[in-house]
Task: inverse folding
């Protein structure tokens, strides 16, 4: 039995079919629809679409039941006509596409970076139910790390979480088939992969027995990158071994390529269970306070090196989880008052955290500033497009007038021009997508000036394509409509006569002039930001950090990574220091647990002994390090009072410390610091006697205010990780090579966490400002170039439209110099107006950069003056060619065209 397709299907297909054969084709489709058994509706629609695209020349505008005209019937004609028109103007098309490609490509590249670092969700299973859990005893800094022992108690006692996992960044000295190197990875609890639902492409994750006991079951899960690089991407990698700290680790799994670790954009090489933490060096936010019991990281409650991720139970809210975990932490405070005093949890959705809440709070505004900066470049490119389309519309006034005279509606003309601008923007979007892909690949391949084994990844996927496509469409429509509207209303008589003087009456300040002013103003904003950051960079490098930087070489090693205990490590550091002292040009050598401008942050809490009112109730947080006696001499920091460490300071003697001037001033205002004592952590903590006061020096970053610092004697508390600090009167590059040779002669497999001059470490600490100056400087250069192109186009178009006027002026006696002056004055007037507007906008925008500026203020007059001079120079160069062309107009030829 023959049955007809539903009316709505016929309604979808009918309007797009050739009118002369519509009924016949619909009948044929109905018969096929009857015979069809599977998915007939989808088949019917597919056939209709097939007919629409395979025979577009049959398309006709068809009236709807309500009488409205279907625009889609002639859209393909507009596209084909637009492509032919643009092909006939290759110069115009190339300039427009390149301008848009630069603007769209930069925005897409920066979007990829910001999306990967700040917004792309980690590949968790059911990510909305995952929470990040922090603990802290500081109400102002609630996002601290936790101890393994606390994590296990929270996991066992809570009633709100399905599971609770811990993770920490770490460095490990690994060896795979003779390849010895330092690797970056994570130490995780045994349920890490299973509880978070992290995908594995091969093998399995850790099982419960991997988290029982310290030192057992040496297994590892490796990254997709390490699997392909060191194991050839073979399936038999499972069961293979690698060596960590002279211990064979069995590979049991390979993480999926979509997962590279908890640190966005940074690739982890491997994951090991927390039970093996003694074999690696945890990194990141580590807080250590006295513990009543335990000797290892797994046992000591005061050793906080883990961050926690939990999965909420069905129907459990954040508030309920916070209350339950707070109750458990209160119980732990009562049971362990020394390590857990006033420690409370903070629970936040894991989807709100990328790096760390405090870091995210700084990076998100930086990401917004970066997106805003490249958005300004796109704005300039779009203004160029609009200006070019306006000029092109004026040049096509005769064509538009003819089409209007033979019956084309204004809407039809607007749509044709809008389609052309949309084609341009889509072509620019495709080129911009290629540029963005190349730029992100280049960024990933660029190496930072650090020796740490950190690699970066930026994933490009449908999000980038969607962003670029949407940006292209919005750009084409937003900046193509105004020129289309303007071009669709030609003066018919003047246009048909091809009289430019009538079609362009020469308003003193038109739309194209406004666009140039906009371009110049935006360029000023970017230029001022770039100059401010560059001047801040130079000011930072010229700032006195409190010691002489020249001639200092650093070498940071952790002998714990090679299986050294405290005693063996002490012997190594003593012998290595003696060998380095014998090297040519070496003046002094010292050891320090932490050097100035090192990325590691070590703090401790102190109270003044016997004076509870001298420091806050919970103690004062101060910077800390352990050093040898020669540290102050080698660094070049003088002692203002007292002495440095010496042979009297042994493990059995009273603990001593040298404090900084800032610490002495803050907590010993009466000048009685020498001989006084402080206690670590609280009034019941270990007693430390102050034996010296050093001059202040910068610790974390250039330009900072003096920080309270306390130096402990390395001879009283040996460690397995130290930094060699060496001062030389010779070449630092040669000394770096010599130190590397001497240390490898003592330990052939030694790996360096840092090896180079201290100047390099300072440069690394200033990397954010350096990158900001580079990015803003590059964007400002592009902005000036695009603004110059826009200014050139406006002036050149103005000159071409005023050829007759210029010819008449010259025939009446106007000199060539006067013509040049008139054209240059028109250009510079636009630039001056744009510069004044830009300076006002820059003064507001510069406030955003105030927190990162060193040695300059947001209103630094030199920066504004430099930006203005640069733009005036570019404007003059852009206007010279049109001005000279105007002066070369032959009056006779111009008058003949009247």
Result:
């Amino acid at each position: 039995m023959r049955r007809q397709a539903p009316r709505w299907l016929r309604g979808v297909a009918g309007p797009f079919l050739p009118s002369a054969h519509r009924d016949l084709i619909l009948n044929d489709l109905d018969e096929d629809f009857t015979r069809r058994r599977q998915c007939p509706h989808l088949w019917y629609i597919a056939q209709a679409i097939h007919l629409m695209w395979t025979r577009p020349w049959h398309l006709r505008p068809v009236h709807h039941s309500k009488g409205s005209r279907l625009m889609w019937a002639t859209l393909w004609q507009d596209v084909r006509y637009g492509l032919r028109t643009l092909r006939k103007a290759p110069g115009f098309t190339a300039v427009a596409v390149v301008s848009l490609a630069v603007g769209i490509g930069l925005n897409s590249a920066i979007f990829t970076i910001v999306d990967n670092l700040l917004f792309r969700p980690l590949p968790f299973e059911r990510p909305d139910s995952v929470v990040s859990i922090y603990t802290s005893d500081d109400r102002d800094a609630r996002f601290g790390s936790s101890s393994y022992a606390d994590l296990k108690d929270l996991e066992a006692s809570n009633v709100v979480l399905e599971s609770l996992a811990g993770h920490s960044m770490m460095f490990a000295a690994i060896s795979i088939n003779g390849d010895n190197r330092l690797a970056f990875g994570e130490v995780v609890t045994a349920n890490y992969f299973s509880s978070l639902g992290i995908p594995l492409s091969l093998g399995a994750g850790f099982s419960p027995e991997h988290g029982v006991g310290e030192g057992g079951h040496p297994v590892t899960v490796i990254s997709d990158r390490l699997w392909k690089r060191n194991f050839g991407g073979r399936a038999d990698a499972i069961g293979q071994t690698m060596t960590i700290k002279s211990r064979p680790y069995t590979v049991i799994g390979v993480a999926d390529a979509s997962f590279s670790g908890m640190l966005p954009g940074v690739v982890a090489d491997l994951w090991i269970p927390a039970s093996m933490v003694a074999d690696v060096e945890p990194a990141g936010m580590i807080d250590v306070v006295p513990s009543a019991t335990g000797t290892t990281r797994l046992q000591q409650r005061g050793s906080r090196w883990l961050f926690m991720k939990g999965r909420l139970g069905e129907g459990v809210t954040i508030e309920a989880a916070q209350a339950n975990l707070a109750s458990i932490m209160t119980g732990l405070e009562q049971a362990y008052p020394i390590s857990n005093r006033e420690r409370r949890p903070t629970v936040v959705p894991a989807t709100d955290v990328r790096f760390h809440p405090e870091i995210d709070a700084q990076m998100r505004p930086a990401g917004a500033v970066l997106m805003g900066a490249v958005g300004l470049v796109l704005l300039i490119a779009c203004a160029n497009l609009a200006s070019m389309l306006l000029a092109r519309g004026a040049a096509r006034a005769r064509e538009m007038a003819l089409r209007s005279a033979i019956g084309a509606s204004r809407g039809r003309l607007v749509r044709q021009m809008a389609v052309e601008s949309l084609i341009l923007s889509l072509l620019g979007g495709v080129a911009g997508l290629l540029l963005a892909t190349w730029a992100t690949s280049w960024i990933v391949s660029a190496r930072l000036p650090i020796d740490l084994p950190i690699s970066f990844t930026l994933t490009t996927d449908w999000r980038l394509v969607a962003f670029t496509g949407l940006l292209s469409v919005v750009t084409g429509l937003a900046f193509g409509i105004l020129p289309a509207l303007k071009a669709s209303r030609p003066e018919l008589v003047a246009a048909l006569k091809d009289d430019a003087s009538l079609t362009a009456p020469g308003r003193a300040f038109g739309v194209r002039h406004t666009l140039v002013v906009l371009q110049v103003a935006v360029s000023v904003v970017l230029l001022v930001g770039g100059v401010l950051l560059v001047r801040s960079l130079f000011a930072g490098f010229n700032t006195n950090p409190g010691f002489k930087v020249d001639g200092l070489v650093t070498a940071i090693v952790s002998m714990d990574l090679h299986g050294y205990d405290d005693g063996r490590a002490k012997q190594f550091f003593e012998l290595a220091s003696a060998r380095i002292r014998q090297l040519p040009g070496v003046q002094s050598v010292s050891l320090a647990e932490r050097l100035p401008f090192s990325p590691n942050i070590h703090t401790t809490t102190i109270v003044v002994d016997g004076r509870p009112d001298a420091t806050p109730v919970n103690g004062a947080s101060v910077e800390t390090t352990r050093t040898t006696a020669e540290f102050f001499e080698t660094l070049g920091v003088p002692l203002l009072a007292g002495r440095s460490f010496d042979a009297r300071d042994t493990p059995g003697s009273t603990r001593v410390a040298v404090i900084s001037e800032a610490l002495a001033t803050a907590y010993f205002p009466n000048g009685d610091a020498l001989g006084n004592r402080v206690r670590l952590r609280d009034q019941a903590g270990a007693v430390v006697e102050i034996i010296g006061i050093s001059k202040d020096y910068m610790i974390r970053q250039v330009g900072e205010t003096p920080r309270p610092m306390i130096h402990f004697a390395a001879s009283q508390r040996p460690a397995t990780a130290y930094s060699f600090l060496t001062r030389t009167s010779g070449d630092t590059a040669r000394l770096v090579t010599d130190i590397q040779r001497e240390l490898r002669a003592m330990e052939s497999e030694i790996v360096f966490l840092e090896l180079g001059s201290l100047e390099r470490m300072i440069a690394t600490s200033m990397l954010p400002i350096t990158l900001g100056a580079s990015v803003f400087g590059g964007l400002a250069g592009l902005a000036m170039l695009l603004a110059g192109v826009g200014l050139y186009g406006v002036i050149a178009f103005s000159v071409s439209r005023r050829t007759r006027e210029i010819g008449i002026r010259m025939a009446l006696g106007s000199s060539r110099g006067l013509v040049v002056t008139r054209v240059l004055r028109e250009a510079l007037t636009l630039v001056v107006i744009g510069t004044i507007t830009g300076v006002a906008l820059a003064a507001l925008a510069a406030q955003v950069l105030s927190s990162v500026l060193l040695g300059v203020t947001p209103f630094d007059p030199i920066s504004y003056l430099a930006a203005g001079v640069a733009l005036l120079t570019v404007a003059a160069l852009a206007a010279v060619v049109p001005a000279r062309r105007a002066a070369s107009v032959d009056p006779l030829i111009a008058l003949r065209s009247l």
